[in-house]
Amino acid sequence: MKKLFIFDFDDTLANFSMYNTWVLKQPFKMVPHIGSTIPGAVEVLDHLQSRRDKMAMLSMNVVLDHELKWRKLNRVGMGKWFNDETAHFVRRKTPKKILDICANMKKERCYMVGNSFDHDVIPALDAGINAIYIPRPWFTAWVPRRTPRTDRFRKLSSISQIIDIYDDL
Ligand SMILES: [Mg+2]
Fold first, then answer.
1. Which residues, given as ranges, of the chain have pLDDT below 70?
2. How much distance in Å is there from the Cα of 15 to the middle of ligand 1?
3. Angstrom distances, CA of residue 105 to CA of 52, 125, 129, 152, 154
């Protein structure tokens, strides 16, 4: 059965996002972009695509206009896996928005993948879908978190582990 993976973007699929957001907003183009995809992210996206799973993106981003958002995503090649229909930009990630994205899918087949406990994990669990928590960067990741008592919650140390646990999802 097909699954749906909803990915957070900043610090889940790619890094140095705040800097790049600032660069994109500059009127002059003297400042280089930095940052790249998170190690393992490309392999995971390719893996899921090869399994014919559905993929979506849910990103908190109201700072950039539509064109700049896509320029930011395309800097790291996201156009290969996501498009206007599957990439969602919101002011806040809510259970309702997550359920909209999950329309026509059984909740137990849907997975939110993100680095933020508050912005990715909590709304996903509140929506009744699964949450895959990959805390990073390290300076926020070490902060002890209450672990939700549900088997809909998984915590991984790197995004590439999604491939390792894929058959158990
Ligand atoms: Mg994030």
1. 16-18, 20, 29-30, 32-33, 138-145
2. 9
3. 14, 16, 10, 16, 20
Domain range for 107 is 4-25+34-168
CATH of the domain at 163: 3.40.50.1000
Q: What is the pLDDT of residue 17?
A: 61
Specify whether the CB–CB gap between 79 and 40 falls below 8 A.
no
| Reported pTM | 0.89
Separation of 73 CA from ligand 1 center, angstroms? 14
Kindly give the distance from the C-alpha atom of residue 13 to the centroid of ligand 1, in angstroms, as a whole number: 8
∠ CA 6-70-33, nearest 5°, is: 105
- 92 burial class (0-12, 13-18, 19+ CB within 10 angstroms)? exposed
How high is the pLDDT of residue 144?
56
Q: How far is the CA of 9 from the centre of ligand 1 (A)?
A: 6
For ion ligand 1, residues whose CB falls within 5 Å: 8, 10-11, 115-116
pLDDT of 37 reads 92
Residue 154: predicted pLDDT: 95
Distance 11 CA to ligand 1 centre (A): 5
Domains: count for the chain: 1
- CA–centroid distance, 75 to ligand 1, in Å, is 17
